């Protein structure tokens, strides 16, 4: 099965790449070009990235791109509520695979905050994200259950997290897999991005996308919140 077989809305563009390295390179080049354009027109650029396992080759390719990283703000679509030293930290992932060499000059705004409770940490992150410039580029991943960022089906706060209009930028979420406690940018903030890419690999994720396209309720599969607006899907077998 290939991504071209999906019945996608006209606003969704697909990029089918031969393998994970080709996808990483193509997506990194697209993201870098859009960041250069934002810097040229506004003097600054903001990119919001997702964590997980698959983004590593993309992050390494992005770190190699030639652009004025001192004018770029990098943030995270979501975070596991663990310190940056923890192996599951998305901030740690970004530090290891993107923010080195020239890209170390970028400003990073993370979501993790030490706090007595997850809810209080989300409120702190929400305030900190008040400093986030307009998002030029957002790169989302997607879980097999149709979650994206840390907008997980059945999570408390999910309905608030999926609201099209929201004062909140960040909410506490619960994932079915450890680390359960997550912090997620809200749909309202994520959907404000100028360019949104969804990076997915393998037949399983294609099957998830097919299921997501077969119904409308985003509380069942939160990725649905992003499939009916402009979106570029990068896929490889
Ligand atoms: O913190 C996270 O885990 C991510 O932000 C999450 O939303 C990720 O994008 C999906 O789980 C897909 O992960 P993979 O791309 O590694 O399968």
TrEMBL record:
Pathway: Carbohydrate degradation; pentose phosphate pathway; D-ribulose 5-phosphate from D-glucose 6-phosphate (oxidative stage): step 2/3. Gene3D superfamilies: 3.40.50.1360. Belongs to the glucosamine/galactosamine-6-phosphate isomerase family. 6-phosphogluconolactonase subfamily. This is 6-phosphogluconolactonase. GO terms for molecular function: 6-phosphogluconolactonase activity. Residues 19-232 form the Glucosamine/galactosamine-6-phosphate isomerase domain. The keyword Iron-sulfur does not apply. It catalyses: 6-phospho-D-glucono-1,5-lactone + H2O = 6-phospho-D-gluconate + H(+). It comes from the Bacteria. Coiled coil: none annotated. Keywords: Hydrolase. One of its GO terms (biological process) is pentose-phosphate shunt. Its EC number is 3.1.1.31. Hydrolysis of 6-phosphogluconolactone to 6-phosphogluconate. Transmembrane segments: none annotated. Pfam families: Glucosamine_iso (PF01182). It comes from Pseudomonas mosselii. The lineage of its organism: Bacteria, Pseudomonadati, Pseudomonadota, Gammaproteobacteria, Pseudomonadales.
